[in-house]
Amino acid sequence: RRLQHKNLPPGPTPLPVIGNLTCMRRNNVFLTFRELRVKYGDVFTLHIGNIVTVVFNGYATLREAFVQHGDSFSDRPNIFIFKDISKHHGIAGSSGDLWKEHRTFALKTLREFGFGKRGLESKIIEEIEAYLPCLEEKNGEPFNIHALTQTSVSNVICSIVFGQRFDYKDERFTKLMEMFDANFKLMNPILNFFPFLQHIPGDPFKAKQILRNADTVYAFIWELVQEHDNSMDDTYSRDYIDAYLKEKKERQSDQSNTFTDFQMLRSIGDLFSAGTETTTTSIRWAVLFLLYNPDVKERMVAEIHDVVGTSRFPNLGDKENMPYSEAVVTEVIRKANVAPLGVPHSCKTDVEFRGYTIPKGAVLLLNIDSVLFDPVEFPDPEKFDPTRFLNENGKFFGREVFAAFSVGRRACLGETLARMELFLYLTTILQRFDLVPEHADRLPSLEGVLGVTHTPRPYNVRLVSRQ
Ligand code: HEM
């Protein structure tokens, strides 16, 4: 290893074959990374199997690497999740010109369908209107909000991408959501570093199962694409699929056209999965944090009742007068730490960085956790304290040092949607329901599980109607 890569950032000595795999054995590996940062500094190297992995820590380092060196450090590595699932296509899994072209198209088209505008707000509120009666039906009995919330949040992105929402009891959609969820749980990061594991007979690492589940999701999307193709009007786009099909037709005579069916399926799959999982997980964390912090919950409820009252739903126009609620949403995003290690990047040539040589093809991890839990920027970082996002006049202020959505060219393209959804879902839930723990003497665990995202363990809560 030393002969092959001479000038790597420092890091623990690797063992033969497995490298530094033992560092990854803890459930939440980002906790280990906090210790490694203290020992090796803001940029350190791990060898996982034979893959060189460089971890970048702290806001200044992340900006230097992924903004200033953005041209070099914005590819995706050749690992299971991108190589075998997205096959280096789509928005999240592609690199180079293919990625630039399709990310630009996605941003432009999502804006046309209301990203950051009132049109999108009404879609979210419409979905919340369908969600509330399902919560009401639980009658204050303990239940796990996960499945209902996931279907509801997913419907928002479905209405933009597919131009339709699905009934909460729609069997096919429920099955799809379950499969989708299973993949987030089954995805063992180890598959990314030891590709041979996917070929072990009996599929103990569930690689084949993950690929089968992914194929089912793509088949579902494909059916909807075909329905669109048969019914679309060339002069008007009803939704993202129509817009894509139109673009594909317009470019069909172009030799270098990258607007293909395969690329469309992967792009839509990315919007669908990224748009569902992260926001749902954040809402699950939010409820948990509010159970632990009844004072925060009561202050937020008081603000909602003062500004909105109870006779109408909260809307985004209220946000300006609800700085505390906006601060709660931002603190939820910080403390939930949904993507603590971001999404892996790579570089296609050797790159000099702070005197080290980052080798071509290395896996680059943006340690977002190191920013969101930086005790200098966010004192007492484990504390759930929304007031860190309020200024001395009680007004909300977003902090520049906030990397939850990553930094640089690949930064999350759904941040606006996620913030809109979190504000509207959380304020509406609290306007209508009190959140009460299942057991009066015991709260659910705050310990998360790190898979593709950092999720809370399953828990039940009572939603007691305020009416
Ligand atoms: C709280 C919610 C969310 C969080 C914390 C979050 C966080 C992230 C992070 C950390 C990345 C990786 C960026 C990188 O590679 O450096 C990302 C990428 C991405 N996110 Fe989000 N996200 C959220 C919600 C959403 C939503 C609602 C959408 C729906 C449109 C979305 C769509 C995407 C896409 C398509 C990418 C890939 C971007 C690219 O590779 O160019 N995200 N997100």
UniProtKB/TrEMBL annotation:
Keywords for the protein's UniProt record, in alphabetical order: Heme, Iron, Membrane, Metal-binding, Monooxygenase, Oxidoreductase, Signal
InterPro entries attached to this UniProt entry: Cyt_P450, Cyt_P450_CS, Cyt_P450_E_grp-I, Cyt_P450_sf, Cytochrome_P450_fam2
Primary localisation category: membrane
Biological process, per Gene Ontology: organic acid metabolic process; xenobiotic metabolic process
Cofactor(s) it depends on: heme
GO CC annotations, alphabetized: cytoplasm; membrane
Keyword RNA-binding: no
Binding-site positions, heme: 412
Transmembrane helix in keyword set: no
GO molecular function: heme binding; iron ion binding; oxidoreductase activity, acting on paired donors, with incorporation or reduction of molecular oxygen, reduced flavin or flavoprotein as one donor, and incorporation of one atom of oxygen
Protein's cellular compartments: Membrane
Family per similarity comment: Belongs to the cytochrome P450 family.
Record protein name field: Cytochrome P450 2C8
